[in-house]
Amino acid sequence: MPPVSPELISPRSTRVSAARRLARRNFRGKDRLFLAEGPQAVREAAGHRSGGQATLVELFATVEAAERYADIVGEARDAGARVHLASEEVIAEISTTVTPQGLVGVCRFLDTPFEDILAARPRLVAVLAHVRDPGNAGTVLRCADAAGAEAVVLTDASVDLYNPKAVRASVGSHFHLPVAVGVPVERAVAGLREAGVRVLAADGAGDRDLDEELDRGTMGGPTAWVFGNEAWGLPEETRALTDAVVRVPLHGRAESLNLATAAAVCLYASARAQRASGGCRTVTQSQ
């Protein structure tokens, strides 16, 4: 079991500098490492493995946090991570939050090749096309995880999966389901359709109504939802690639739904339909 290193006092130490630079995308890509902050994300990272390797590489913890979350620190050690006791000044230097929680983990990249996702024959997928806000991307990932989706795909026009804001917003869901990154939207739609997945665009200007689709019984099969940019939605050329463009009905006076809320509604509608009698999950589970 790797020992806990002596307390790191200087924010200018080599280890602290190496971790701090992961706040920048170019260094994350070069090192293929990212930061996970807070007890929930660190706990999930400590229990995650990919390709036979532990995901959590290092853990920085204040003395107070190491005592409060002794079980998480123990899990990190068991996973083979190097654990550093750090001063609050050091944690503040590494952290990207205003009020750090005393735990910051350094993790290996964990994205999945798109071909592997297709080979698994997914039944529910969220595709983020042109999504630029990292908080929204992380929240949609969390919604997909909660709805029981098997995968998330980020197109090459979307935000970095490992942006610290995206990691925080997912609250650990980064470590729960396969995510493919940098996939051209044309390839994403074509590949999913070849895998037997119906591809739906979620758009407020859609010519089909989600409630009507549910009433018709068309939502029970394998489905991928394509979600667009927060401000201008999906471009026409992307909508044209999909099997249908579906809007979430607004029964009240609100002008629209934000991206994460619309994604949650769509994903849960599919999850509910798939679990109903005759849905693809019911069929799969009965075989």
Structure, described:
By secondary structure, this protein is α/β, with parallel strands linked by helices. Helices cover 40% and strands 22% of the residues. It has 14 helices and 14 strands. It has helices at residues 14-20, 25-31, 39-46, 63-68, 70-78, 88-94, 114-119, 134-146, 164-170, 185-194, 210-216, 236-239, 259-275, 280-286, and strands at residues 4-8, 33-37, 49-50, 53-54, 56-61, 82-86, 103-108, 124-128, 151-155, 179-183, 198-202, 208-209, 223-227, 244-247. The chain has a seven-stranded parallel β-sheet with strand order 10-9-8-13-11-14-12. Helix 8 links the parallel strand 8 and strand 9 (151-155). Helix 3 (39-46) packs parallel to helix 5 (70-78), helix 8 runs parallel beside helix 9 (164-170) and helix 8 packs parallel to helix 13. The chain is elongated and about 65 Å long. It starts with a strand and ends with a helix. The model has no long low-confidence stretch (mean pLDDT 92).
Q: Separation of termini?
A: 44 Å
Shape: elongated
Strand content: 15-25%
Order of helices and strands: EHHEHEEEHHEHEHEHEHEHEEHEHEHH
| Main structural class | alpha/beta
Proportion of helical residues: 40-55%
Number of helices: 14
- The number of strands is 14
Cα gyration radius (Å):
21 Å
Low-confidence stretches: none
As an assembly, this protein is single chain
Strand order of the largest sheet: 10-9-8-13-11-14-12
How is the main sheet built? 7 strands, parallel
Could you tell me the mean pLDDT?
A: 92
